[in-house]
Amino acid sequence: MALYEERARVLRPEIEAGRRVLVISDIHANLPYFHGLLDKVGFCDDDFLILNGDFLEKGAESLRTLREVMALCEKGSTLALMGNCDGWAAICHEDSKRLEALPRYLRLRRRGLMWDMALELGLDPLNLGDLDAFRRRLTERFPAELAFLDALPHAAEAGRYIFAHAAVYPDKPLSEHSAGELTRCDAWYKLGYSFDKWVVVGHYPVMLYADGIVCANPIIDRERHIVCLDGACVLKDDGQLNCLIIPDITGDELSFDSYDSFPMATVLEDQAASARSAYIRWGDSRVQVLRRGEEFSRCRHVRTGYELDILTKYLFTDGELTDCNDCTDYVLPLKAGDRVSVVERCSRGFFVKHNGVSGWYFGALKEDEK
Ligand SMILES: [Mn+2]
C-alpha cells in the first residue's frame, strides 16, 4: 500500500512518571556512535529508550544495528519507531516497486540493510541475479528481522510527548495521520506549527535550519513545544548523535547530550568570533573556484556571491561545475581553557567543534593524550 494511504500505527506506551526517558534519532547504522552515546548518558535498565526512526542505512552496519535494536526492544523498555530509511520489509511484499530499484540503490550506496543481508546470504550485493529469487531467500533467512521492521509503529504518545520520525500535523488526531506524513517531510520545523504537547522529531539535520553558523545540537523550542534531534551523524563529517533526556514524561523539563568520535583538545588562546560567516551546504553547494591552492582554494558561492576559502579536498568537480562538501568559514569565539573536538588539522589552524558548533580556531591547542 502506498505510504500516504497507509494509516499510521500509533503506540501509547505506559511510562511511569519520574522514569528517565532517552530519545535518540537517526543512528543510521553507526554502532560506535550509538554505543558511545549510550555510555555517555549512562543508559541502564531503569531508563526508557525511544529510537525515533532511521536507525538503518547510510552508515556501515545496518544488519548489526537492526539486531541490536531488536534485542533492546525485546527487553521491553526500548521502543523503536519507523523512519523513512527503515521500511525494508516492503521489499518482500508482492507489489513492491522497491525490489526493481534495489540493484541501482546498491550500486550507488554500497551499504545498507539489503547489502548486509545479501552478504550474509553469500551473494554479491552488486550482482544479485534473479530478484524474485533474492526476495524469496530474504523471507526464508530473515523472517524475524523483516517482521520486526514491518511492525514498527510510526508514532508514539506518552505523557506530555509525541514522538514521530519526521513530522506531525496539528490539524488532525495523531491516529488519522498516514505513515508517509509522519515519516517523510523535509524541513518540517520551518512550517511554523506549534503544539500543546511536545513533539519530538528527527529526520532533517538541524544545522540545515541555520544560516551562517553550523550547530549540531538539538533545537529545543520551548514556545512551540518542538524538539528537532537529528545531529547528522554519518551524513555530515562534523555531525554528532544527539540524545534528548526527559527526566519525567509528565513534565516539561528537558536536556540533551551528544556524542561524536573526534579527538578532544584544550584551547590555549582566546579568539573572537568572525563578524560574518557562511554555511555552504549540500543542495546549495555550487561554487566558482577563483584561485585553486594546494590546501585551500578561494571560492565564490554561486547563489549568494559570498567569497570564502574552502579546503581544496572538499571541492569536487564534474565537467564545468564545482560543488563542495558542507563547510563554513565561521571563526569560533573561544576562551583559553575551552574544550573542543578537532575535526580537521591544517597549516592555518584547526576546524573544531565547541558545544556542538563547528568553526575555525587559529591559535595553539593541546590535544588530549590517547
Ligand atoms: Mn529520515
Give a quick precis of the structure:
The chain has about 375 residues and is of the alpha+beta class.
Which residues sit in consecutive blocks of at least 5 with pLDDT less than 50? none
Approximately what portion of the residues adopt beta-strand conformation?
25-35%
**Average pLDDT rating:** 95
Number of domains: 2
The second-level CATH architecture of the largest domain is 4-Layer Sandwich
User: Cα distance, first to last residue?
Assistant: 52 Å
Helix tally?
A: 7
Spatial order of strands in the largest sheet: 1-5-6-7-10-9
What is the CATH class designation of the largest domain? Alpha Beta
Gyration radius (Cα, Å) is 22 Å
Fold-level CATH name of the largest domain = Purple Acid Phosphatase, chain A, domain 2
Report the sheet with the most strands, covering strand number, pairing sense and barrel closure.
Answer: 6 strands, mixed
Q: How would you describe the shape?
A: globular
Small ligands present: manganese (II) ion
Overall strand count? 24
